[in-house]
Write a structure and sequence with these properties.
The complex is a heterotrimer of chains A (about 325), B (about 140) and C (about 550). Chain A is an alpha/beta fold and about 325 residues long. Chain A has helices at about 5-10, 10-25, 30-35, 55-70, 115-135, 150-155, 175, 195-210, 230-250, 250-280, 280-290, 300-310, and strands at about 45-50, 75-80, 90, 105-110, 140-145, 160-165, 185-190, 220. Chain A has a seven-stranded parallel β-sheet with strand order 4-2-5-1-6-7-8, with helices on both faces. Classes of the chains: A alpha/beta (about 325), B alpha/beta (about 140), C alpha/beta (about 550). Chains in contact: A-B, A-C, B-C. The interface of B and C includes residues 20, 42 and 72 of B. Bound molecules: cobalamin, guanosine-5'-triphosphate and magnesium ion (MG).
C-alpha cells in the first residue's frame, strides 16, 4: 500500500516516512502529497518562535498537554539549525517534550534546517500537511526566531506565538529579530523571573504604537512553562485568535494569500525544473562567459536564457 | 535540486542510568560526520525510545548504557522494535556490557557493541557503512 | 637570575635544541594547561610566604589543614563499596575493614539513588547492579549489622534522597542504643553537581536546595560530628571537566550552599566547619597537587573575606579524594593498578583527609573482592612504604608546583567571575553553562585520543591482542528475590495507619516551611519506605527535567 493511503488510515510510521521523503526531496513524494492534499486544511496551524532558550519547547510541550486535555490531537514540528560546516545537526527540542512521547494523540517530529532556508519553509509546510492529513487537530511548529526563514514559516501558520522572556537586556528581543509584526499572541515566558511585568508593559506600549486601528490586537499572556502557569490562558488566546480570523474574514484572506504564494513558489520550481531539463549546456556556458567578460549583465543574460527556452532552443 | 540523503540517528539512554558523557561524545561525533542526531535525554523507557524512533523515522538507534541493566531493557526494546516492524533500523549499543552478555545482546537485535576505549572514528565508520540505504 | 637564564637559553640550551629538538612543540597538562620547560625562582618572585602559604593548620591552609598532617594521623582509607543486597554489602564492608580500611563508604544502587523502592516500575532490571539496594530502615539495619558505627565514620554517596537515607542511618543506630550525637560521617547531599554532572536530580533546584538547608540546619543543631554535605568535584571531573573547571565549579557550588544557609538565617560559623569537599585525582601528577593546594587557599580566603567567618575551623577545607575512574581502561586492566597508585600519591601529596582508590576492574564491573583489596593495599603501601608521609606538604617551594598552584587559583577565579555574571550557580545551571563547558572538554579529550594526540597506554598505543581475563564480581542471583521478600514483610508487619499519619505530617511540613528532617525521621522510624517518602516530595515539589546540553 502506498504511504499516503497508510497515513490516511492512521499509520504513524507512514506519516514519519513521508516526512523523511519530503526532507530528502525524494522521487515520488509529489505523488504522495497530491494524494493527501484533499485531506488537508483541517488543522489549526500555530507557529511558535522566539529567541534561543526562551522556553519555546517547554511551552510547546505544556501547550500540547493542555490541548490534549481539551480533547484535541496535536502534531509538533520542531526545527533546529543544521551546522553549516559539517551538515550535521543535533536536534534537541524533543527532549523537553518527553512526557508526550508515548501519548498516541501526539506526534512529534524534529527537523533540521539543512541549509536552504527557502527550502526549509517549504519542507516544513509539506510536513505540516502530512500531520494535517494524518488528523492532528492542532499543529505546533517551533522555530528559533532568527530571521527570514521564521517569518516565512510564520506566514504559513494561522496563528503565531512569539515567545519573550523578561530581563534579557533592555530591548525586547522581537524588535531585534524583526519578528514583532508576525505575532498574534505574545507569551511572556519565565514569568517567574523578575521583570515580567515590565516586559508586558513594554510590549503593550509598542503594540499600541504599531497596531492599525481595527486590526487584531495581539494578546499578551504571561506564562511559566515549567510549572504550567498561564498555559490554559495561552490556549484560550489561540482559540480567540482563530475565532477572530474566522469571524473577521481574515482567515479566508490569509489562506488565499498563502495559497497564491504556494502556487507561485511551486510554479517557479516547476519552471526552473523544466528550464534545467531543456537548456543546453552550451547556451549556459556561452551566457556565463558573456557575464564573466562583462558584456552582459545578469538580468539581460537571464532574459536571453528564457527567450531561448521559449523558442525551444 | 536534491539534498544528499541524511542519516538520522537516535541516541538513547534507557533506564535510570545517568552516565551521559559517552552518549554525548558519540552524539557529537556523529553530528560532526554530517548526521542528524536526536538525543533522547535521560531516564527513557523502551516504549519511549521506540515511539521516538518511529516518529523521527531514524535509520539508527544508538543505545548507551553503563549501569548493568542492559539485558532486561534491551530485551524489551528488541520485542518492541519487532512488534513495530522497525526491522530496517540499525541498532547499536555502547557502554559497559560484559563479554559474556554479548550473545544474548546480539540475539535481542543489537548489531554491534562499542565498549570503553572505542574510537569514535570506528563508530562513525560502522554507522556509515551499516545504516540502511533504502529510502529517499 | 633572569640574565643568567637568558645566557643558558642562548648558550647551552640552544645548542642542545639544535642537536636534538624536543619531543613536542608544546607541553601541556592533562587538562591542556601549557607547561614550561623550566621553572625558576623568577616564577614565584614576589610571593609572600605568610599570606600565600602559611603554616600547616593555619590560614590560608595551602600547606594543609592540620599542624602535623600525616605524621599525626594518616588519611582515612575509605573504599566506596556496595552491591546487591544489604547482606552482601555488609559482608564486603567487614572484609574491607578486616584488611585495614579505616572508614566506610556506601555505594547505593540506581533505584535507591533515584528514590525508588526496589519494586517500583522504574526499578525494573536495576536492582543491586550499581550498589546496594536500600528500600527501608530494615535494609539499613542489615547493612550495618555488627559494625561499630559509633567508632567508625561512614560516608554515603546519596543526593536527592540524602535526608531519608541519613534518617535511616540515624534511626538504625539509635535502635542499637547509639545516640545520634555520637555518629560521625558524611552524606554527599550535593544537588548542584547533580544538575551539573551526575544527573541524579529529582526535584527542581528550589526545593532541592531547601531540603539541603534543612539537613545543614538539623546537623548543626543535633549532630556535631556529621558532615551534612560533601561538595563534590569528583563527578564534575568524571563527566569530562578539566582540573580548573572541577575546582572552580565545585568551589562555586560551595559558595552557593553557604549563601543559602546564611539566607535561612544560620550563622556561618555554626555550620561552615561541617562542610566537606570531595575531589578527583586524575593522571597529571603536579596539576592535581596544585589543584588541591589552590582549593584550600581559595576556600579559606572566600570564607574569611566573602562571608566574614570568624572561626578558623570555618575557613579550612577538608576533603575526600577518589582516583579518576574515567582514566582507567578496559584494555589491559592490570595497568590500572599503576595509574591508581600515581593518582593516589598525588592525592596524598595534595593533603587529602580521606581516599578511595579505584580497582583495576573499574571499566568492567563493580569491584571484585580481590581487585578492591589490591586498591586498598595501594594506599597502605603509599602510607607505610613510600616515605611521603614523613613530612608535611613536601612539594611546597617547588618553583613549578607553586607557579601552577597560583595559576590554577587565578583560572578558577576567572570562572567565578563568569558565573557571577550569569547570576550565580542555579541560573548558570539553567542556562546550561557548566554542562556546556564540561561537554566541550569531554569532547576535546575524546577527540585527542581518537586523533592520537593523547596517548592512553593499551588503548590507542601499546595495544595487545590477548583477551583480558581478570575475575569479575559475581552477585547472589537470588538477591533481588530476598530483598523484595524483606520489603514485603516490612509493608505487612508495620502499622500502616501510623505510616500514613506520619507521611501526612511530612507532607504538611514539606508544603510549609518547617524543617523536614524531624518528620522524615518519624516516617522512617515507622518503616515508611524510601519510595513512599520520596513520593510525598515528588507530589509536593514536582520533578525536574533537564535541558541536556550536547
Ligand atoms: C565517568 C563515570 C561516572 C561519572 C558520570 C558522569 C557523566 N555525567 O557521565 C559519575 C562520577 C557521575 C559516575 C557516577 C556513578 N557511577 Co560511574 N563511571 C564512570 C566511569 C569511570 C567512566 C565512564 C565514562 O564516562 N567514560 C568516558 C566515556 C567517553 O566512555 P564511555 O561512556 O564508555 O563511552 C564510550 C564507549 O562505551 C562507547 N559508547 C558509549 N555510549 C555509546 C552509545 C553508542 C550508540 C555507541 C555506538 C557507543 C557508545 O563510545 C564511547 C567512546 O569510546 C565508569 C567506569 C569506566 N572507566 O568506564 C564508571 C561506571 C560506569 N560507574 C559505575 C557506577 C556504579 C556509578 C554509580 C551508580 C555509583 C554510585 N553507586 O553512586 C553512579 C551513578 C550515576 C548515575 N546517575 O547514573 C559503574 C557501573 C557498574 C556496572 N555497570 O556494573 C562503573 C562501571 C564503575 C565501576 N566499575 O564500578 N560515574
Ligand atoms: N524559570 C523558568 N525556566 C523556564 C521556563 N520555561 C522554560 N524554562 C527553562 O528554560 C530553558 C530552555 O527551555 P527550552 O524549552 O529548551 O527553550 P527553547 O526556546 O525551546 O530553546 P531552543 O530551542 O534551544 O532555542 C530550560 O532550562 C527550561 O527548563 C519558565 O517558565 N520559567
Ligand atoms: Mg527548543
Amino acid at each position: 500500500m502506498d504511504l499516503a493511503q497508510r497515513l490516511l488510515d492512521g499509520d504513524r510510521r507512514a506519516a514519519a516516512r513521508l516526512i523523511t521523503l519530503i526532507e530528502n526531496g525524494a522521487d515520488g513524494v509529489e505523488l504522495e502529497l497530491k494524494q493527501i492534499y484533499p485531506h488537508t486544511g483541517q488543522a489549526h496551524i500555530v507557529g511558535i518562535t522566539g529567541p534561543p532558550g526562551a522556553g519555546k519547547s517547554t511551552l510547546v510541550s505544556a501547550l500540547a498537554r493542555e490541548l490534549r486535555g481539551r480533547g484535541k490531537t496535536v502534531g509538533i514540528i520542531a526545527v533546529d539549525p543544521t551546522s553549516p560546516f559539517t551538515g550535521g545537526a543535533l536536534l534537541g527540542d524533543r527532549i523537553r517534550m518527553q512526557e508526550l512521547s508515548t501519548d498516541s494523540g501526539v506526534f512529534i517530529r524534529s527537523m533540521a534546517s539543512r541549509g536552504a532556508l527557502g527550502g526549509l519553509s517549504r519542507a516544513t509546510a509539506d510536513a505540516v500537511k502530512v500531520l494535517d492529513a494524518f488528523g492532528c487537530n492542532v499543529i505546533l511548529v517551533e522555530t528559533v526566531g532568527a530571521g527570514q526563514g521564521e517569518v516565512d514559516i510564520a506566514r504559513a501558520a494561522h496563528s503565531t506565538i512569539v515567545v519573550e522572556v523578561p530581563g534579557m537586556g533592555d530591548e525586547i528581543q522581537a524588535i531585534k529579530a524583526g519578528i514583532l509584526e508576525i505575532a498574534d499572541v505574545f507569551a511572556v515566558n519565565k514569568a517567574d523571573k523578575a521583570g515580567a511585568e515590565r516586559t508586558v508593559m513594554e510590549l503593550e506600549m509598542m503594540l499600541q504604537m504599531n497596531t492599525r486601528p481595527g486590526a487584531w490586537f495581539p494578546l499578551i499572556v504571561k506564562t511559566v512553562a515549567t510549572s504550567n502557569k498561564g498555559i490554559a490562558e495561552l490556549a484560550d488566546a489561540l482559540e480567540k485568535h482563530l475565532r477572530y480570523l474566522r469571524d473577521s474574514g481574515e482567515l479566508e484572506q490569509r489562506l488565499r494569500a498563502n495559497t497564491l504564494r504556494e502556487l507561485v513558489d511551486a510554479a517557479k520550481e516547476e519552471f526552473i525544473g523544466e528550464l534545467w531539463a531543456e537548456l543546453s549546456q552550451r547556451d549556459l556556458a556561452t551566457l556565463t562567459q558573456s557575464m564573466l567578460d562583462h558584456h552582459l549583465d545578469p538580468r539581460s543574460a537571464a532574459k536571453e536564457l528564457v527567450r531561448k527556452f521559449r523558442n525551444g532552443s | 535540486m536534491k539534498e544528499r540523503r541524511k542519516i538520522r540517528v537516535l541516541i538513547a539512554k534507557p533506564g535510570l542510568d545517568g552516565h551521559d558523557r559517552g552518549a554525548k561524545v558519540v552524539a557529537r561525533a556523529l553530528r560532526d560526520a554530517g548526521m542528524e542526531v536526536i538525543y533522547s535525554g535521560l531516564r527513557q523507557t523502551p516504549e519511549m525510545i521506540v515511539e521516538t524512533a518511529i516518529q523521527e523515522d531514524v535509520d539508527v538507534i544508538g543505545l548507551s548504557i553503563l549501569s548493568g541493566a542492559h539485558l532486561p531493557l534491551f530485551s524489551r526494546l528488541g520485542e518492541l522494535t519487532r512488534e513495530q516492524g522497525l526491522d530496517r533500523v540499525l541498532i547499536v549499543a555502547g557502554g559497559i556490557i560484559p563479554d559474556e552478555d554479548m550473545p544474548a545482546v546480539r540475539e535481542m537485535g543489537i548489531r554491534a557493541v562499542f565498549g570503553p576505549g572505542s574510537s569514535t572514528t570506528d563508530i562513525v565508520d560502522f554507522v556509515l557503512s551499516n545504516a540502511p540505504q533504502d529510502k529517499g | 637570575m633572569a640574565s643568567k637564564q637568558k645566557e643558558w637559553e642562548e648558550g647551552l640550551l640552544c645548542k642542545s635544541l639544535q642537536r636534538a629538538p624536543e619531543r613536542r612543540e608544546q607541553f601541556v597538562t592533562t587538562s591542556g594547561v601549557p607547561v614550561e620547560r623550566l621553572y625558576t625562582p623568577v616564577d614565584i618572585a614576589g610571593k609572600d610566604y605568610a599570606t600565600e602559604l602559611g603554616f600547616p593548620g593555619e590560614y590560608p591552609f595551602t600547606r594543609g589543614v592540620h599542624p602535623t598532617m600525616y605524621r599525626g594521623k594518616l588519611w582515612t582509607m575509605r573504599m566506596f563499596a556496595g552491591y546487591g543486597t544489604a547482606e552482601e554489602t555488609n559482608a564486603r564492608f567487614k572484609y574491607l575493614l578486616e584488611h585495614g580500611e579505616t572508614g566506610l563508604s556506601v555505594a547505593f544502587d540506581m533505584p535507591t539513588l533515584y528514590g525508588y523502592d526496589a519494586d517500583q516500575p522504574m526499578a525494573c532490571g536495576e536492582f543491586g547492579k550499581c550498589g546496594v539496594a536500600i528500600s527501608s530502615l530494615a535494609d539499613m539495619e542489615v547493612l550495618f549489622a555488627g559494625i561499630p558505627v559509633d567508632e567508625i565514620t561512614t560516608s554515603m554517596t546519596i543526593n536527592s534522597p540524602a535526608a531519608i537515607i541519613w534518617a535511616m542511618y540515624v534511626v538504625a543506630a539509635e535502635k542499637r542504643g547509639i545516640p545520634r550525637q555520637r555518629l560521625g560521617g558524611t552524606i554527599q547531599n550535593d544537588i548542584l553537581k547533580e544538575f551539573i554532572a551526575q544527573k541524579e536530580y529529582i526535584f527542581p533546584p528550589g526545593p532541592s536546595m531547601r531540603l539541603i538547608v534543612d539537613t545543614i540546619e538539623f546537623g548543626a543543631r543535633e549532630m556535631p560530628l556529621w558532615n551534612t554535605i560533601s561538595i563534590s568535584g569528583y563527578h564534575i571531573r568524571e563527566a569530562g571537566a578539566t582540573a580548573v573547571q572541577e575546582l572552580a565549579f565545585t568551589l562555586y557550588d560551595g559558595l552557593a550552599y553557604v549563601q543559602a544557609a546564611i539566607d535561612r538565617g544560620l550563622n556561618v560559623d555554626d555550620f561552615a566547619p561541617r562542610l566537606s569537599f570531595f575531589f578527583n585525582s586524575h593522571n597529571d601528577f603536579f596539576e592535581e597537587i596544585a589543584k588541591f593546594r589552590a582549593a584550600r587557599r581559595i576556600w579559606a580566603k572566600e570564607m574569611r573575606d566573602r562571608f566574614d567567618a570568624k572561626e578558623p575551623r570555618s575557613w579550612l577545607m577538608r576533603f575526600h579524594t577518589q582516583t579518576a575512574g574515567c582514566s582507567l581502561t578496559a584494555q589491559q586492566p592490570e595497568n590500572n593498578v599503576v595509574r591508581t597508585a600515581l593518582q593516589a600519591l598525588a592525592a596524598v601529596m595534595g593533603g587529602t583527609q580521606s581516599l578511595h582508590t579505584n580497582s583495576m576492574d573499574e571499566a568492567l564491573a563493580l569491584p571484585s573482592e580481590k581487585a578492591a583489596r589490591v586498591a586498598l593495599r595501594t594506599q597502605q603501601i603509599i602510607a607505610h612504604e613510600s616515605g611521603v608521609t614523613n613530612t608535611i606538604d613536601p612539594l611546597a617551594g617547588s618553583y613549578f608546583v607553586e607557579a601552577l598552584t597560583d595559576r590554577t587559583e587565578r583560572a578558577a577565579r576567572d570562572y567565578f567571575q563568569k558565573i557571577d555574571a550569569l547570576g550565580g550557580a542555579i541560573p548558570a545551571i539553567e542556562a546550561g553553562f557548566f554542562q556546556r563547558e564540561i561537554a566541550d572538554s569531554a569532547h576535546r579529550y575524546q577527540k585527542e585520543i581518537d586523533e592520537g594526540k593523547r596517548t592512553i597506554v593499551g588503548v590507542n598505543d601499546y595495544q595487545t591482542q590477548e583477551p583480558t581475563s581478570i575475575p569479575l564480581l559475581k552477585m547472589d542471583p537470588e538477591g533481588e528475590r530476598k530483598h523484595l521478600a524483606r520489603l514485603n514483610r516490612v509493608r505487612q508487619e508495620r502499622d500502616n495507619d501510623e505510616v500514613r499519619r506520619r507521611l501526612q505530617g511530612l507532607r504538611q511540613a514539606a508544603m510549609g516551611d518547617a524543617n523536614t528532617m524531624p518528620y522524615i525521621i518519624d516516617a522512617v522510624r515507622a518503616y515508611a519506605t524510601l519510595g513512599e517518602i520520596m513520593q510525598v516530595f515528588r507530589d509536593v515539589f514536582g520533578e525536574y527535567v533537564e535541558t541536556p546540553v550536547l
